[in-house]
Design a protein that fits this description.
This protein is mainly α. It is built from nine helices and no strands. The radius of gyration is 18 Å and the shape is globular.
Length: 163
């Protein structure tokens, strides 16, 4: 009985990890093929990870994190390799305590950080509500390996993205 519960927890964690990696990949507007190339792993293996069918090693997670330009720690926590930092960890307080930057720089850094949080929350809500947007359409097209058409369809003709 206990063995079955543990197995179920591991399977759930791997599914959640896979979904998280897929969301990060889509946010980065990378196709499955492109991410697998950048991470140095096979396309089928990455697909199995995203579907929660495989339990990737710490090294594989590090390669995926590097390709996604996120911290490996984030993926380690999602995979259950590391414990999540306690709630007491407060980045804003850490920035305010930093003596190596000016007060103006602290305020600017916090303003940028908060704007990223708002943007991420909005994107997460948009995704969970099932709202189809140009970004979601572009991500779906990228999954099909048609990133160029996705960029053209969303009006992103080559300039930098707004945010």
């Amino acid at each position: 009985m206990v063995r079955g519960v543990v197995r179920e927890e591991i399977e759930t964690r791997m599914r959640d990890l896979g979904e998280f990696i897929r969301e990060q990949r889509r946010s980065a507007r990378l196709s499955l093929r492109k991410l697998s190339e950048q991470a140095g792993i096979s396309n089928p293996y990455l697909s199995q990870i995203e579907r929660g069918l495989r339990k990737p090693s710490a090294e594989i997670l590090q390669s995926i994190a590097k390709a996604l330009r996120i911290s490996a720690e984030t993926l380690y926590v999602q995979a259950g390799i590391l414990e999540e930092r306690p709630e007491g960890h407060d980045l804003e307080a850490e920035i305010m305590r930093d003596t190596t930057i000016s007060e103006r720089h602290k305020r600017t850094l916090l303003e940028i950080y908060r704007s990223f949080q708002v943007e991420h929350r909005a994107a997460t809500l948009e995704h969970t509500d099932g709202v189809e947007t140009a970004d979601a359409a572009a991500a779906a097209a990228a999954d099909a390996g048609d990133a160029k058409d996705a960029t053209d369809a969303s009006g992103g003709g080559g300039g930098e993205a707004d945010g």
